Amino acid sequence: MAYTMLDFAEDILAKVEKPLTYQEIWAAGMEKNLTNKLSITGKTPWQTLGARLYVDTKENPNTKFIKVGKNPVRFFLAARSSEVSQDLIEKINLEQRKEKRESDHYEERDLHPLLTYFAYSNPAFNRGRNIFTKTIFHEKSKKSGYSEWLHPDLVGFYLPIEEWNENLVEFNRISDNNALKLFSFEL
Question: In CATH, what class is 5-103?
Answer without folding.
Answer: mainly alpha
